[in-house]
Design a protein that fits this description.
Transmembrane segments: 16-33
Strand order of the largest sheet: 8-9-10-11-12
Helix content: 25-40%
Shape: globular
Number of domains: 3
Keywords: Glycosyltransferase, Golgi apparatus, Membrane, Signal-anchor, Transferase, Transmembrane, Transmembrane helix
Number of strands: 17
Mean pLDDT: 73
GO molecular function, one term: glycosyltransferase activity
Organism: Lupinus angustifolius (Narrow-leaved blue lupine)
Low-confidence stretches: 31-242
Radius of gyration: 27 Å
Distance between the termini: 75 Å
GO cellular component, one term: Golgi membrane
Strand content: 5-15%
Structural class: alpha/beta
């Protein structure tokens, strides 16, 4: 009997162990398929070895809790103590080959090139193609896979190829037609490793996809899911703009109403804990709203502004109060690498001047009113975009993980859900790249499109400035006096988007007063184009693929009255400047009537506008050493101003 009981006991024990094993296995399998990143709960030992890096970034903070990798073109930050100077690597499931004579990273500038450009910031003097400049690592399998990926590999993708077009007439490196926007996704087979906890869910605007020039809205879910391995907090999504309807074509007067409505609604999140900086912002708002009336202000011509009194007081308070904390995390070239030439130069110049600033920057984040996220969307595209890829979800994922890094290392992002953080981005894709994970931030965007999620009173319209010389960014500024401007209207440029072909249809070679061209003969330093800008009364600023165009600032630079033809474009510094005082804004539908509209403007009125263009010019000029009221200070002021009017104390 004793042996029988012992046998039954052992049998029951074995069955119990077997059942426990099955249960554990089932849980592991369930969790594997339940998490969006596949096997992200497995130990780090399961993942691919990384290529060794060398060098370090001068801006890199110590003990950063990440090291970026790209698996199937998706960047993941997943390792501690990263100090590499050249950002993410491209690897497949087998380790890529290493080459001693090249940096095995895609699209990165060599160390010798970086060293040769230290004095003026990172840039290429020949304005190379953003796409063609992407260089691959030794293993070509990744790029081949990227090229061959079908629609199933991305969310909402199409096989549309992207091409780079050069605008010969304006001498500009023209921007790429944006590929469709995509919800960041990683296929189940993609191996990643992350060490983050749950994310903040951003209240992003509707995403807009672009396929073959047509635009359509993708659906917007009830919750923005950034992934389950994030260091920020999950919150239910709210439709912030539900009470502020936006018309199909938003006029300047309607934009004015939207701005006032947003400021009146106080839409920023209430901070999770109190801060002295919050009280200072509230005090600044009170002083701005009750600013003493002034009429004659040195260097400020009152008709140029919505309210010169409030602008003057706000600017004074910015100089006296504002403190900005600049995050040092992140590796070059996406972070801390200012690109100072070409049509995306605004984000680079701001980064360069902000990171070395001694007046506004503070090293103590507890004193900061604003937090700057110093990444370049131009360098993000230059570094990570794979030529002819229908998706840039890997770039979105890169920025997402950067937010996770910031939120995981510092407490300040979660204090306001990023509402006191800001970014400065000039690339066309920036609205889509930042619309989810940075939706609560103040976004200074060149592509300031009402229909692409630009939020009045929070976001800032960033001037798109084409810079030819990093050593002398104001070179060739100015133009002919009004009496010697013999051409009524001028435009030259590539046929990008749908508006310019319409402009050509009605005005190309149709009227001697209307100098409307597709292309101009090549000339040294683009002299023919510049001469037309300097000698025309009105300069046509017709949208291309996106609403923004460097011609708006070029017209001001050459003292030509800008004629903006771009529905739903929010002009730069909209919260401060009275654009109708020095520019002509024409709906796209009125292109056939362009000449009659311009001729209907009395000569006296034209002379006033041309004079005001010269006076407003100071706000659109870059200086190697910033001066009062210049473009650097105006960008910073608009960010400050919008934060002041959206801040809420605990």
């Amino acid at each position: 009997m004793g042996q029988k009981k012992l046998f039954l006991f052992r049998l029951k024990t074995n069955r119990l162990i077997w059942l426990i094993g099955i249960t554990v296995a089932a849980i592991v399998v369930y969790r594997y398929f339940q998490f969006p990143y596949g096997n992200n709960t497995l130990p780090n030992g399961f993942y691919v070895d990384k290529i060794a890096k060398s060098g370090s970034s001068g801006f890199q903070a110590a003990d950063l809790p990440f090291e970026p990798e790209i698996f199937n073109n998706v960047t993941i930050f997943n390792q501690a103590n990263y100090t590499g100077a050249h950002g993410p690597e491209t690897v497949t499931k087998t380790k890529t080959s290493e080459k001693k004579d090249t940096i095995s990273t895609p699209g990165f500038v060599s160390e010798s090139e970086i060293a040769s450009n230290k004095s003026s910031g990172f840039h290429e003097s020949d304005e190379r193609s953003l796409v063609d400049s992407v260089r691959l690592s030794g293993d070509k399998s990744t790029i081949e896979k990227a090229k061959n990926l079908g629609p199933s590999s991305y969310n909402n993708t199409t096989g549309a190829n992207l091409t780079k077009e050069v605008d010969i007439s304006s001498g500009s490196e023209h921007k790429l037609a944006a590929p469709p926007d995509f919800t960041p996704s990683i296929s189940p087979s993609t191996e990643v490793s992350t060490n983050f906890t749950p994310p903040v869910l951003s209240n992003g605007p509707n995403k807009t996809d672009s396929v073959n020039g047509e635009r359509f809205k993708t659906s917007k879910g009830d919750v923005n899911i950034l992934g389950k391995n994030s260091s920020t907090t999950i919150l239910p999504k709210e439709n912030k703009d539900s009470n502020i309807p936006v018309p199909e074509v938003t006029s300047i007067s309607e934009m004015n109403k939207l701005l006032l409505q947003y400021h009146a609604s106080n839409r920023s999140m209430r901070p999770r804990w109190s801060s002295a900086a919050d009280q200072e912002l509230l005090q600044a708002r009170s002083e701005i709203e009750n600013a003493p009336v002034v009429e004659n202000v040195e260097n400020l011509y009152a008709p140029l502004y919505r309210n010169v009194s409030t602008f003057k007081r706000s600017y004074e308070l910015m100089e006296q109060t504002l403190k900005v904390y600049v995050y040092r995390e992140g590796s070059k070239p996406v972070m801390h690498s200012p690109h100072l030439l070409g049509i995306y130069a605004s984000e680079g110049w701001f980064m360069r001047l902000m990171e070395v600033d001694k007046r506004f920057v503070t090293k103590d984040p507890k004193k900061a009113h604003l937090f700057y996220l110093p990444f370049s969307t131009r360098m993000l595209e230059h570094t990570l975009y794979v030529k002819n890829s229908p998706s840039y979800s890997n770039m979105i994922e890169y920025l997402h993980n950067y937010v996770d890094l910031i939120a995981g290392k510092h407490p300040y992002w979660n204090r306001t859900e990023g509402a006191d953080h800001f970014l400065v981005a000039c690339h066309d894709w920036a609205p889509s790249e930042t619309q989810d994970h940075f939706a609560n931030c103040i976004r200074a965007l060149c592509n300031a499109d009402v229909k692409e999620g630009f939020v009045f009173g929070k976001d800032v319209s960033l001037p798109e400035t084409k810079v030819y010389s990093a050593q002398n960014p104001t070179k060739r500024v100015g133009g002919q006096p009004a009496s010697r401007r013999t051409t009524l209207a001028f435009f030259a440029g590539g046929m990008h988007g749908y508006v310019r072909p319409i402009l050509m249809k009605h005005w190309e070679n149709k009227d001697p007063d209307m100098k409307i061209f597709r292309n101009l003969p090549r000339s040294r330093a683009n002299r023919i184009y510049v001469d037309y800008m300097k000698s025309s009364k009105y300069c046509i600023c017709a949208k291309g693929y996106e609403v923004n165009s460097p011609r708006v600032v070029e017209a001001i630079f050459y003292e030509c009255v800008p004629v903006i033809i771009s529905d739903n474009f929010v002009p730069p510094f909209f919260e401060i400047l009275n654009w109708e005082s020095f520019a002509v804004i024409i709906p796209e539908k009125d292109i056939p009537n362009l000449k009659s509209i311009l001729l209907s403007i009395p000569e006296k009125r034209y002379l006033e506008m041309q004079m005001m263009v010269k006076k407003v010019q100071q706000h659109f000029l870059w200086h190697r050493n910033p001066v009062k009221y210049d473009i650097f200070h105006m960008i910073l002021h608009s960010i400050w101003y919008n934060r002041v009017f959206t801040a809420i104390a605990r």
